[in-house]
Amino acid sequence: MNEKKEKLTISGILLYQFQDKWRILKQAIEKIPEEKKHNGKNDWTYSWNIYHIIETADFYIRDTHEGMVWGKRAGVDWDKDSKEKIKEQKSKITKEFLLNYLEEIDKKITAILTKLSDEDLMKKDGFYWFDSILGKLIYLLRHNHHHIGELAHALREWDCERIRWGR
Questions:
Q1: Is residue 53 within 8 Å of residue 99, measured between CB atoms?
Q2: Coil vs helix vs strand at 6
Q3: Is the Cβ–Cβ distance between 19 and 139 less than 8 Å?
Q4: Digit-coded pLDDT (tens) for 30-46
Q5: Domain for residue 145, yes or no?
Q6: How far, in whole angstroms, is CA 43 from its chain's centroid?
Q7: Separation CA 42–CA 128 (nearest Å)
Q8: Of the candidates 44, 87, 105, 154, which lies 20 to 30 Å from 36 by C-alpha distance?
Q9: CB count, 10 Å around CB of 105?
Q10: CA distance to 46, 77, 81, 84, per residue, from 91 (Å)
């Protein structure tokens, strides 16, 4: 056999993991019944958890931690808006909004990872508390999967259709 093999790269492996994470998160969005999407404890609702997962990916895929306005895509500014306004905006989050935001960040991450070499991944960027871009992206995957686990648990607790983890 004379099959041509593609060279395995760290960025390619990361890209596969991010795409799998998005596939799982998309299921979490699609499987939650409309009447339960804003359920949760206090202000930590199912839909806000999904928003948080996507927003943290939006944050950590950047080159610097500076300039991020947390909650901006949901129409709020965590540092300036009242709790009442934030609560009101959270209640307006739709599945369509989440799916669109997810798709946008997926494309952004795909574009970035397809350009980064293994050597680039070992460099530092503006996130001074990480030893490398690779370390930052692994942290992001772990952080996001922690929250996806919370979503999977909620679906189970609410007797909803479960997320399928395997491919």
A1: no
A2: coil
A3: no
A4: 999 999 999 998 788 99
A5: yes
A6: 19
A7: 33
A8: 105
A9: 21
A10: 11, 15, 15, 11
Query: Could you tell me the maximum CA-CA distance found in the chain, to the nearest angstrom?
Result: 65
What is the domain count for the chain?
Answer: 1
Q: Is 2 within a domain?
A: no
Asked, for residue 91, whether it belongs to a domain, the answer is: yes
pLDDT tens digits along 82-131: 989 988 999 999 999 999 999 999 999 999 999 999 999 999 999 999 99
The residue written with tokens 């930052």 in the block is 136
Alpha carbon distances (Å) from 3 to 9, 107, 112: 18, 30, 28
Q: Per the structure block, which two tokens stand in for 147?
A: 């929250």
Q: How far apart are the first and last CA of the chain?
A: 28
Q: Which parts of 91-132 fold into alpha helices (H)?
A: 95-115, 118-121
Q: 34, exposed or middle or buried, with CB in 10 Å at 0-12, 13-18, 19+?
A: exposed
The beta strand positions in 24-149, using DSSP E, are 40-41, 44-45
DSSP for residue 72: G
Residue 39 one-letter amino acid: N
- Which CATH number characterizes residue 94's domain? 1.20.120
Domain that holds residue 46: 33-157
Compute the Cα dihedral for 73, 74, 78, 80 and give only its sign.
Answer: positive
| Residue 53 within a domain | yes
